[in-house]
């Protein structure tokens, strides 16, 4: 694994798509090795923030920094795990993970065994030879987790990664994520709608609104406090 | 309809058509359409049996196949390459797209005079026309397939550290294959139309040339043999493209049942 986690920072950042501003004047610091969970109503810019950190979306104004350097494009240091299916459909589960290993520079001869090890860790060792269309949505999401972790990034940006999983699998994936992070420290920015998941995983929880960070809770935060902060901004039940 | 009954019905339909053809030609029927000089299926079969004994028949087939495959492979390679380039690069799009839009409406067969003027040998001209016919369907379908590619695949590979060439090799090229094969199938069809027409106009060998020559020497069974051979070759090459396409795009959701 490639050292410690990245330090991520958004400085007075305004983010949006083609003239439509999603979030304005956002200031946010993520420390190296921290797990920051981002909550907020739909459309408040949680995914947009992840895309900006990943280097897929340049800031309209303000700055987005990784280890103090402006983010100008994507990098193997900052992997994004998508909420919907981002596996390459013509590659089997194993070959999807192998791609991440290849991009990381793992020699050809070692990729296969390493990919199967990662699939074993997400409980899909038996499904290594299957194509994404032969897997359920939850299984595909687990393959994506294996692929993202196999890349060994210094920052993992996760966009509601476990939303499609059943409660039990979700719990084991959360444990796996924490296990992997214990071996290979990385900075995590984790977007979710699930307050319990936020409190379980996060070192710190922020609630995002259209004008940036609306509320912030260092762990251990109380569930009621977080719910109240969300309830104050939205009418939806989280 | 009962599954067992379907094949005999299909076969009977073909045989009935052949029998009707034999009857109207044997009776020298002259209604509004005239069958008195039209060869019957038996004449065609005899002529076919005579021709396959001669080396010339096979030489013509080899000649036409060489022409169509050279033109088609050139069109496939350049069509995919330039389709991807014009869809993904603003520069390539602005430089090449206007040229393609101007040249595309010209039927490839109308390029025969251009080919005769441009190329030192007949052979190259015919390959050029075949290429021109197959190129545009491949180009256009590739361009559309690139534009329709889900962005998330590319984003995923880029955030795993993949650069421009990785994305091209691992995402774009495999991802556009289903669309490209649509263009290749159409391209193969029009390539046959054009290679046969070009041979009829300016060839000195080939199935198209031989078919036209049979007509000029009033060898009507020979004309029909030529047509049947063209149909058969066209069917075989299209089936080969189709088969390759299905092999390479097994991952598509619709392929699960086949």
Automatic annotation (TrEMBL), chain A:
<dbReference type="InterPro" id="IPR027417">
    <property type="entry name" value="P-loop_NTPase"/>
</dbReference>
<dbReference type="InterPro" id="IPR003439">
    <property type="entry name" value="ABC_transporter-like_ATP-bd"/>
</dbReference>
<dbReference type="Pfam" id="PF00005">
    <property type="entry name" value="ABC_tran"/>
</dbReference>
<protein>
    <submittedName>
        <fullName>ABC transporter ATP-binding protein</fullName>
    </submittedName>
</protein>
<keyword id="KW-0547">Nucleotide-binding</keyword>
<feature type="domain" description="ABC transporter">
    <location>
        <begin position="8"/>
        <end position="235"/>
    </location>
</feature>
<keyword id="KW-0813">Transport</keyword>
<keyword id="KW-0067">ATP-binding</keyword>
<dbReference type="GO" id="GO:0016887">
    <property type="term" value="F:ATP hydrolysis activity"/>
</dbReference>
<dbReference type="GO" id="GO:0005524">
    <property type="term" value="F:ATP binding"/>
</dbReference>
<dbReference type="InterPro" id="IPR003593">
    <property type="entry name" value="AAA+_ATPase"/>
</dbReference>
<dbReference type="InterPro" id="IPR017871">
    <property type="entry name" value="ABC_transporter-like_CS"/>
</dbReference>
<dbReference type="InterPro" id="IPR050166">
    <property type="entry name" value="ABC_transporter_ATP-bind"/>
</dbReference>
UniProtKB/TrEMBL annotation, chain B:
<feature type="transmembrane region" description="Helical">
    <location>
        <begin position="125"/>
        <end position="146"/>
    </location>
</feature>
<protein>
    <submittedName>
        <fullName>ABC transporter permease</fullName>
    </submittedName>
</protein>
<dbReference type="GO" id="GO:0005886">
    <property type="term" value="C:plasma membrane"/>
</dbReference>
<keyword id="KW-1133">Transmembrane helix</keyword>
<dbReference type="Pfam" id="PF00528">
    <property type="entry name" value="BPD_transp_1"/>
</dbReference>
<keyword id="KW-0812">Transmembrane</keyword>
<feature type="transmembrane region" description="Helical">
    <location>
        <begin position="68"/>
        <end position="87"/>
    </location>
</feature>
<dbReference type="InterPro" id="IPR035906">
    <property type="entry name" value="MetI-like_sf"/>
</dbReference>
<dbReference type="GO" id="GO:0055085">
    <property type="term" value="P:transmembrane transport"/>
</dbReference>
<feature type="domain" description="ABC transmembrane type-1">
    <location>
        <begin position="61"/>
        <end position="242"/>
    </location>
</feature>
<dbReference type="InterPro" id="IPR000515">
    <property type="entry name" value="MetI-like"/>
</dbReference>
<feature type="transmembrane region" description="Helical">
    <location>
        <begin position="220"/>
        <end position="241"/>
    </location>
</feature>
<keyword id="KW-0472">Membrane</keyword>
<feature type="transmembrane region" description="Helical">
    <location>
        <begin position="99"/>
        <end position="119"/>
    </location>
</feature>
<feature type="transmembrane region" description="Helical">
    <location>
        <begin position="167"/>
        <end position="200"/>
    </location>
</feature>
<keyword id="KW-0813">Transport</keyword>
<keyword id="KW-1003">Cell membrane</keyword>
<comment type="similarity">
    <text>Belongs to the binding-protein-dependent transport system permease family.</text>
</comment>
């Amino acid at each position: 694994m490639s050292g410690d986690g990245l330090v991520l920072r958004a400085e007075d950042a305004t983010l949006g798509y083609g003239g439509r501003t999603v979030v304005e004047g956002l200031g946010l610091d993520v420390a190296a090795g921290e797990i920051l969970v981002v909550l907020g109503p739909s459309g408040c810019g949680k995914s947009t923030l992840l895309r900006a950190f990943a280097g897929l979306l340049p800031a309209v104004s303000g700055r987005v920094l990784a280890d103090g350097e402006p983010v100008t494009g994507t990098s193997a240091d900052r992997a994004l795990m998508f909420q919907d299916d981002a596996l390459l459909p013509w590659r089997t589960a194993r070959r999807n993970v192998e791609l991440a290993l290849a991009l990381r520079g793992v020699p050809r001869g070692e990729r296969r065994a390493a990919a199967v090890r990662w699939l074993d860790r997400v409980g899909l060792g038996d499904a290594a030879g299957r194509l994404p269309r032969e897997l359920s949505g939850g299984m595909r999401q687990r393959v994506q987790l294996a692929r993202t972790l196999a890349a060994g990034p210094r920052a993992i940006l996760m966009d509601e990664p476990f939303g499609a999983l059943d409660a039990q699998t979700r719990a084991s994936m959360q444990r796996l994520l924490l296990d992997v992070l214990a071996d290979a420290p990385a900075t995590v920015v984790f977007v979710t709608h699930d307050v319990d998941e936020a409190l379980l995983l996060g070192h710190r929880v922020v609630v995002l609104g259209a004008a940036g960070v609306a509320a912030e809770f260092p762990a251990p935060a109380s569930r009621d406090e977080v719910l109240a902060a969300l309830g104050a901004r939205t009418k939806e039940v989280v | 309809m009962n599954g067992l009954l379907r094949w005999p019905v299909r076969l009977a339909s073909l045989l009935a058509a052949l029998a009707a053809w034999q009857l109207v030609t044997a009776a020298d029927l002259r209604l509004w359409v005239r069958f008195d000089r039209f060869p019957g299926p038996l004449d065609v079969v005899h002529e076919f049996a005579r021709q396959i004994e001669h080396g010339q028949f096979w030489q013509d087939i080899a000649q036409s196949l060489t022409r169509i495959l050279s033109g088609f492979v050139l069109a496939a390679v350049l069509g995919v390459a330039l389709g991807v380039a014009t869809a993904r690069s603003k520069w390539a799009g602005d430089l090449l797209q206007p040229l393609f839009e101007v040249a595309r409406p010209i039927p490839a067969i109308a390029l025969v005079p251009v080919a005769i003027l441009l190329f030192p040998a007949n052979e190259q001209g015919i390959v050029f026309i075949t290429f021109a016919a197959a190129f545009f369907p491949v180009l256009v379908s590739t361009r559309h397939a690139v534009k329709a590619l889900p962005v998330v695949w590319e984003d995923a590979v880029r955030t795993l550290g993949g650069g421009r060439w990785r994305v091209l090799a691992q995402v774009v090229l495999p991802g556009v294959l289903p669309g490209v094969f649509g263009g290749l199938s159409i391209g193969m069809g029009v390539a046959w139309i054009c290679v046969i027409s070009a041979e009829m106009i300016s060839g000195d060998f080939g199935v198209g040339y031989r078919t036209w020559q049979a007509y000029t020497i009033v060898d009507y069974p020979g004309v029909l043999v030529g047509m049947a051979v063209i149909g058969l070759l066209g069917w075989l090459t299209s089936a080969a493209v189709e088969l390759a396409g299905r092999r390479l795009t097994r991952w598509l959701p619709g392929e699960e049942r086949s």
